[in-house]
Amino acid sequence: MTIRAGGHADTGYAPGGHDEMLDGHGAVRGAWSPLAGELGRAGPAGLAARDAHTRRLLAEDGVGYRPPGVDDEQPWALDPVPLLLAADEWSGLERAVAQRAELLDRLLADLYGPRLTLRTGLLPVEVVLGHEGFVRGWARGPGAPPRRELFLAGVDLARTADGWRVFGDRVQAPSGAGYAMAGRRVVARVLAPVHRRSRIRRLRPFLDAVRRGLEELGAGVDAPRVVLLSPGPQSETAFEQAFLSAQLGFPLVLGSELMVREGRVWQRTLGRPEPVDVILRRVDAAWCDPLDLRAGSQLGVPGLLEAARRGAVTVVNGLGSGVAENPGLLPYLPALARALLDEPLALPAARTWWCGDPAGLSHVLARLPDLVVKPIARGDDRHSVAGADLTAAERAELAARITAEPHAWTGQEVLVPSTAPAIGPGGHLAAQPVTLRAFAAAEGGRFHVLAGGLALAGDRAKDVWVLDPGTRTTPRRPDGPHAPAGTLSPRVASDLFWLGRYAERAEGTARLLRAVADRRADFQTTPEPGGRQALDVLLRATTAVTLTAPGFLGEGAVGRLAAAGPELLSLLTDRDRPGSLAYAVHRLTGSAQAVREQLSVDTWFVLGRLETVLGELAASKAPDVSGAPDVSGALSRVLEGLLAMAGLAAESHVRDAGWCLLDAGRRVERAIGVAALVAATLCDRTRPAADALVLESVLISAESVITYRRLPRTGVAAAVDLLLTDRTNPRSVAHQVERLRADVAGVPGPEAGVGAALEAVERRLAGGPPPVHRGPAGTRAELRALVVGLGHDLGWFAEVLERGRFAPGVPPRPFGTVA
């Protein structure tokens, strides 16, 4: 395959209309020449490899999106071939996008202020007051402080044969800028040679402008506290919200973490509540305040609307900004630009007719098959529909709806967007219709536009390269102070604590299963009684430690012990089974997603590998572990990933309260796991021939076998002392308790019995060497009482820590491992 720069393309790439890469004669446009040459040299095989590389990098970076109604986050879909825009064409578009944002900001200021546009007839009253996004309680009264209604704007664009056209505005809580930046990271690696050679406008200056602009909104405060209000980790764009939080350096909060007291907004933190000055919201306005807006909303803050209306906090975009997304405004924007800006509208929209106007209604009804019919406000029962896609009966039904409520509907001409090359099946380039969402943010008295934006081609996004032949300049960094320290919320604290617990639970389960798998390989078919008995002890211990009964315990256990393969495979791969390794890894990933903004980007590379390894085992369709491919090797790869994650936490996380909680989760779970393992293996009656094998497996599972072999004395007493009371052993219970004492000291908040709960554990360990003698029945009853008591006390400590330091009402975690 070749694409000749400056000449025709003979690749089979055949756009049917206006194309971004090829002109009307089939020649490559000048700005596309370097990229076209790279695509041509790659050929279908090379392009397919780049496509696969893109998918892999997105998964490793954890770039995801959760479609409505889907439980799990899906990988973000990105085409590695970017959309290119020359500097001269971008400069005009950039000015037009900034002008449009300024116009909508002034329009909103008028609609919630003097309403001159309504009083003078520039806008029909019905198109505004009949829109669900118009918030009547948002109107400013006489003497109310000025406020910015629009801070961040999104504009949906399509280039047609007649130039760029707007087909929608996104000003409620526009999304996509974070995905554009995440996509740039990936494409820059996939197309590294051409990316390095091209002069491409950087995206980071836009984020710097966003940060400065948000801090400007906290005028009068030396160090304004800015937060990003999120619907939560289950929202569609949770990745982007966490990404922006991390990039901007502002905490990501839920509505439940904010409260209104004495007329202003406060953020709950582990210490005292902290005042909030600016809220960048990603929650739709209707859900932001259950008192004044949508009753019963769990996403908002009671009293927020009144606090913001009085100027006690700045909310952007303003809670009434949703009305500016109204397509019914489009026919009136040219006149509004002349009235509010004293200049012509630079960026025309697709021709639109509002049905509340009799002439518009007549036109829409007469041309339904040729138009896209859009409600002025999206809802469950109202959505955009192309008239051409409807049957005659469906068009008649739609016409009746429009006639019954004409003010609620618009008709818009069907735009035919330009096409751009995208990688299709087999690595062949295909011409896909492409649209562009541009973004503008207010800072320093004007709107700054993201250099490019987010393009969409089919069902995949595209990076946008604005080519700039000028000299590269170093962007100005944010001047304002960072958000004050101590902004760790109780919800984030809880998520970090459980992230540590799930990580340690996954590691402990993987170690135990690997030790069992190795012993099973040694003794599954051996006639040696001691080996078989040791294996049975370890299998029963697996059920006891993972709390996955009946498993190898209870009724029917004899049969399951004799044919252990299916049960072990379930413990490895069944993601829906509490206590399994796959369950722990899945919960670990979920906890990480909930605090994504707190973690290193490399975390997602590690988590993605864990899910991949276990997914491959599950997909093998083996009836049991005997038929599964290389179970021990898979467990080793899982452990490698978990150890890498532990290393990231140890070496890449600031030793703040968040790290202390993450570490505390690890420590308490490790201590509970060691105690449970000792209880399940070393306390019951066994045969002498099996004792040594069981003990060795326990030490291997507890990562202490090498240390044990170097002790001056060996045996059960030495091993138990090493695992329980030896503070120099980083795997012992005593060492975990010592670390827990330091971790708790690093977490602000009320004592609330936390110290007393930890002292109970310390007292239990302070009774001298652990008893290991066997009683008349051949069991170690005193040792069992000690380790069971330790497990109980440690579980109680974790519960007290959560109740005392974390948010009230934090939902219980599905875990299945509390002693």
UniProtKB/TrEMBL annotation:
Name of the protein in its database record: Circularly permuted type 2 ATP-grasp protein
Residue span of region Disordered: 1-20
Recorded superkingdom: Bacteria
InterPro entries reported for this sequence: ATP-dep_Glu-Cys_Ligase-2, CP_ATPgrasp_2, DUF403
Ranges of residues in domain DUF403: 489-760
Start and end residues of each Circularly permuted ATP-grasp type domain: 82-455
